[in-house]
Amino acid sequence: MAISLNKGESYNLSKEFPGVKKLMIGLGWELTTKQLDLDASVFMIGANGKIINNNYLVYFNNLKSPDGALHHTGDNQTGKGMDDDESILVNLDAIHKEVTDLIIVVTINEAQENGYTFGLLKEAYVRIYDEVSKKEIVKYDLDAENASNSDIEFARLHRQNGDWTFTATGKGSGKGLEGYMEKYS
Ligand SMILES: [Ca+2]
Ligand SMILES: [Ca+2]
Known about the structure:
By secondary structure, the chain is mainly beta. Helix content is about 10%, strand content about 40%. It has a single domain (about 10-185), classed as Lipoxygenase-1, CATH 2.60.60.30.
C-alpha cells in the first residue's frame, strides 16, 4: 500500500524502500465535459535552488535529461485510457552529481487563460512507484483533494549523503508551468 503523507511531511525513501533504483512518476486523468491537457514535469535542482542548466527541466518539450537519468515517455494531451497517461522514469543512480533535488509538478495547459482546475476532471492523480517491483510509494488525488488548483508542486525528492528523502509538497501556485519555470530557472 502506498504511504499516506500529509502536506509537508517527509520520509527517507532509501530507508523505506531499500535498494530502490528506478522510480516511475505516473500522471493519470479522465475527462468529464472539458478537453484538458495535463503535463508532468520535473525540475532537476542544484544547490542554488535552480535547475543546473536549461536542459535539466524534463517535460513534454525536453523528454530526456542530459545525464540520461530522467526519461519522459511523451506528451499525452487527452488523458484517454486508464492507468498512467504521462510517465517519467527516474534512474536515481544516474542523476547528475550537482542535482540535489527533484521537484515534480503537474500543470494544466492553458489553465490560466481558461480558468481550468483539477476539479473539472475525474480519476486524476499523480503517483510514484518503484519501477522494478511496481510497488506504489505515494499517490496524490488531484480532482477531489486539489479541485480548486490549476497546478501543483506535488513532491520534492532531496538527496543527502546518498539517500533520497521524499517530501509531500502539495502546493498550487496558480501560475502554471511558466510560473515554475520562472521560479526554478
Ligand atoms: Ca500533456
Ligand atoms: Ca486516463
